[in-house]
Amino acid sequence: MPRQPLAAAGKRSAARVNYAEESDSDDDMKQPRKRTTRRSTRRSKEKDDPAFGKAKQTSSSSESEAEKEEEEQEEEELPKRKPRSKLLASLPARRRNVGRPATTQKTVSKKPTIAPRSVHRLNQHHHLPIVPLRRLQQQERNEPLSPYELARERLHVSAVPESLPCREDEFAEIMGYLEGAIEEGTGMCVYISGVPGTGKTATVLEIIRHLQYQAEQKTLPEFDFVEINGMKLTDPNQAYSILWECLDRSEKEQRKRVTSAHALQLLEARFSTAQEDQRTTVVLMDELDLLVTKKQTVMYNFFEWPNRPFSKLIVVAVANTMDLPERMLSNKISSRMGLTRINFQPYTHQQLYQIVESRLQGIDAFEKDAMEFAARKVSAVSGDARRALDICRRAVEIVEMRQKQQQALEDNQPKKATTTNATKHVTIGIINEAIREMFSSPSVAFIQSCSLHQKLFLVSVMLRARRAGIAEVEFGDAALIHMQACKWHLIEPPTTSDLMRVCESLGQTRALVVENGRMDLGMRITLNLMEEDIKMACKTDKVVGKLLTDT
């Protein structure tokens, strides 16, 4: 019993020895702290005795020089190694790559790579002039064109004629406005309206060509021209960036792309103050119907800037709706804008005949009765010159195809007389065949197979969109037109729930784009069919056709 305390005491003493050893090792690890304390004491001594500090500096410098000499002697005594490139050259080819890190994808790219982003650029500056495809093909081909090929070239919608017939009055009026504003250095706004295919954009572009030619001849002050097409913009506010990019006079290297909000601020500052050597800027805003926003700020700004005294901005707005400014802006604001309005009426059958005849001048491929028949057919539906050109172009393709087939038969059977005698000119029958091909599209066949109320609702949506000037309408507005049409023609009107089911059925076939998640009067609807297809399909219907003719 008395030995147990002694053993315990021995264990405690051994533990104390171990603890002392560990504390000694810890003190060795904490030597840098002692150095810091020594440094602090040295600094205090240097402050008290400056001679002590100078002596210490000289001794430390002598010690560092001695250490450097010893290191140089050791390096000279060591054997010199060959460079790595010479060592690898002396090795065999199979052993040269030994020891080199493999250049795999993991070792090269340790950080995650950033995915490339595509940048959408507006108003790109091309270094080389763009040549139209058909003109380029004609330059490369030295062979003369056949009458059918020449007719197809001239009847193409994108072919630019030497003159624009049947729009001489509108041409002279717009030309006078723009020429006077450029000479005086003032701003103005011209609003051009009309149904599609009446030559609005083509007339304006032809006027710009004439004005630019006058500026080159020094008979008119120089001006800048900017074209903004609503169909090419994903956001209406991008119009600010396009306009500022063209007005920026700085060098190309110093130009920076700006956001729409920043471009709006820069334009506001530019049009509010006088600028040195500021030239007039003509802006063509095509498809203005698609630049409609919730607060209508884009339309308001572009209509308001020309009225400022320092702007020198001329805005030519082109739209399909005649009263779009009054519908989108209040009457007080639109009247204060001071818009100059010009309306393009649809082409008559005499004008359409003159347009087709001017393009086919000097080409013996059409009969006069065939051209007049095509002009009357198109003018009865829409008065769209583009549709008349497409029909005549398709008729030329049919005649050309039949001529080639007959020539192939004659080449294969030269001795036997062929029974088929293909005509060399476009006749009324071929025009009628081309019309049936163009208007017998799946959408026209679908509309003709619809019920009466489905046709009426499609026409109601089309009329409401035309009156509002925007593509998206509300179900309640279209339903009101539908109910009124039923009362006018003594047809029992459907209930709201029945008409909602009619709208839902048209939405399932994608004839209408219907807003998801709503089944009320505020549901938004967009027409997903061409107006010309609806007119062509419904013109033979007594009720729906009369509704179209009344409007």
Automatic annotation (TrEMBL):
Coiled-coil positions: none
GO biological process: cell division; DNA replication initiation; mitotic DNA replication checkpoint signaling
CDD domains assigned: AAA
One protein family per Pfam: Cdc6-ORC-like_ATPase_lid
One Gene Ontology term of the molecular function aspect: ATP binding
InterPro entries, alphabetized: AAA+_ATPase, ATPase_AAA_core, Cdc6/18, Cdc6_C, Cdc6_ORC1-like_ATPase_lid, ORC1/CDC6, P-loop_NTPase
SMART domains referenced in this protein's UniProt entry, alphabetically: AAA (SM00382)
Keyword DNA-binding recorded: yes
Keywords from the named record: ATP-binding, Cell cycle, Cell division, DNA replication, DNA-binding, Magnesium, Metal-binding, Nucleotide-binding, Nucleus
Compartmental location: Nucleus
GO cellular component: nuclear origin of replication recognition complex
Residue ranges, annotated region (Disordered): 1-113
Transmembrane segments: none
Biased composition (Basic residues): 32-42
Ranges annotated as biased composition (Acidic residues): 64-77
Residue ranges occupied by any AAA+ ATPase domain in the UniProt entry: 186-343
Family membership: Belongs to the CDC6/cdc18 family. Belongs to the ORC1 family.
PANTHER family hit by this protein: CELL DIVISION CONTROL PROTEIN 6-RELATED, ORIGIN RECOGNITION COMPLEX SUBUNIT 1
Name of the protein in question: Cell division control protein
